[in-house]
Design goal:
alpha+beta, 11 strands, elongated, EC 5.2.1.8
């Protein structure tokens, strides 16, 4: 076998490999001998078929298998000998001329092919004991608890009919009958009777609820809206529609007395028990926010400490996924890059930087996990599946069956578990110091990111 490196540019390598026909013939011959005891051919006793006859019958298919196996074995050995870790699947180029292919399958010429690869660079891991990480911690205040309970009360308050002649305002609930048309034609699912709409809840198509403001009971209006471009029904997505809408009742939200009786409507013994439950839930939410802040800070530190060239193909793949998502969201919202105070080229440059960071961090976390034998158990993945199932009451079996039969979906569950375990491993080594902050400061970065997005 002869191996010649024809390209070595950064993380990209290409090799020309030649395997003598005699080697292929020997391997194919061994396969044919092994085949003697496995095939049944009329006119021959089991195990007595001459190899020459087997070659006439199966020679080309056996040679094709031999070539395929030889390429796999040769590439594996080549990459192992040179210490390559592949970033992507190798790209193999074989002879395409019909005459040359025939000669190869008939064992009359050497196997010559090229293999192009992109490798993962060697990663020198930082000393994690030198990392300084600040952990913001916020205590749950009585005000936080009171505000949380008020939000619960607002979502559980009842409605009462407004006085005759009263008009609908934001926050009111309007009961409507409607008939929707597109280009003058009624469409499937576009009619409804006795439908209750809370103005400002944003549960209907954008623009629908706002046009109900000022409507009175018995009044009919034609509401003009457009279905979002990413609407779940492809036939309606992006289509302008008109809804002939009649209000049959206007109701105003009622104040809720926050007391023991209210707590009992939620299945709790008293207001004190409700406050206790609200405090526990807020504490869990604060802990989650703290975790995200710490993780973000740690990933920033890892990014700073590990600067290397990321495999271009992986960066391209990550960028394309992100960019397609961004474009879809902007198209759905009807926005342009000018609306975001930027240009398409500037946005692409920014997202490519993000893609590069994600790929590098992914490789660093993988390297840390591999070197420290960090793994995700089947039990951990199973618990994640159960948690997903619990989030979809009534569809638990459907969720379970989906993950059980979908290896890619399971891998998507496994990945964040693995990442969190690696993060925890680093935090055990790093110097983590707690800092007391207010609730506002704990969520400040998160709120800023949402605003920027």
């Amino acid at each position: 076998m002869q191996v010649t490196e024809t390209l070595s540019e950064g993380l990209k390598h290409e090799f020309k490999i030649s395997v003598p026909a005699s080697d292929l013939d020997a391997k194919a011959g061994a396969k044919l001998v092994d085949l003697k005891d496995k095939v049944r051919i009329n006119g021959f006793r089991p195990g007595k078929v001459p190899v020459a006859h087997l070659k006439k019958v199966y020679g080309r298919s056996v040679m094709a298998e031999t070539i395929d196996q030889t390429i796999r074995d040769t590439n594996t050995q080549l990459f192992s000998d040179r210490g390559f870790r592949l970033a992507t699947e190798p790209k193999i180029t074989m002879p395409t001329e019909q005459a040359e292919v025939e000669e190869l399958l008939n064992g009359k010429t050497d196997l010559t092919y090229t293999v192009a690869i992109e490798v993962v660079p060697a990663i020198a891991l930082a000393d994690f004991k030198s990392f300084q990480v600040e952990k913001p911690v916020a205590d749950v205040s009585d005000t936080d608890v009171d505000e949380a309970i008020k939000r619960i009360a607002d979502t559980n308050r009842g409605y009462a009919a407004k006085a005759e002649g009263a008009k609908a305002e934001s926050g009111d609930r309007v009961t409507i009958n409607f008939k929707g048309t597109i280009n003058g034609e009624v469409f499937e699912g576009g009619t409804g009777e006795g439908i209750q709409v809370a103005i400002g809840s944003n549960t209907f198509i954008p623009g629908f609820e706002e046009q109900l403001t000022g409507i009175g009971a018995g009044e009919t209006r034609t509401l003009k809206v457009s279905f979002p471009k990413n609407y779940m029904n492809d036939k309606l997505a992006g289509q302008p529609a008109e809804f002939e809408t009649t209000a049959t009742a206007i109701e105003a939200p009622q104040d809720v007395a926050i007391d023991d009786e209210f707590a009992k409507t939620l299945g709790l013994e008293s207001l004190d028990k409700l406050k206790e439950a609200a405090r526990e839930r807020l504490a869990a939410e604060f802990a989650g926010a703290t975790r995200q802040r710490v993780k973000r800070a740690l990933l920033d530190r890892l990014d700073e400490a590990h600067r290397f060239e990321a495999p271009p193909s992986l960066v391209d793949e990550e960028f394309n996924l992100m960019w397609n998502s961004v474009k879809a969201e902007m198209d759905s919202a009807g926005k342009t890059f000018a609306d975001e105070d930027t240009t398409e080229d500037a946005a692409k440059e920014e997202y490519r930087k993000i893609a590069d960071r994600r790929v590098r961090l992914g490789l660093v976390l993988s390297e840390i996990g591999e070197k420290n034998k960090i793994t995700v158990t089947d039990d951990e993945v199973g618990r994640a599946v159960i948690e997903r199932a619990r989030q979809m009451p009534g569809r638990e079996k459907e969720v379970w069956d989906y993950y059980r039969s979908n290896a890619q979906a399971l891998a998507q569950l496994r990945a964040p578990i693995y990442e969190d375990k690696v993060v925890d491993f680093i935090l055990e080594l790093a110097n983590v110091t707690e800092k007391k902050v207010s609730r506002e400061d704990l969520y400040k970065d998160e709120d800023a990111e949402k605003t920027a997005a």
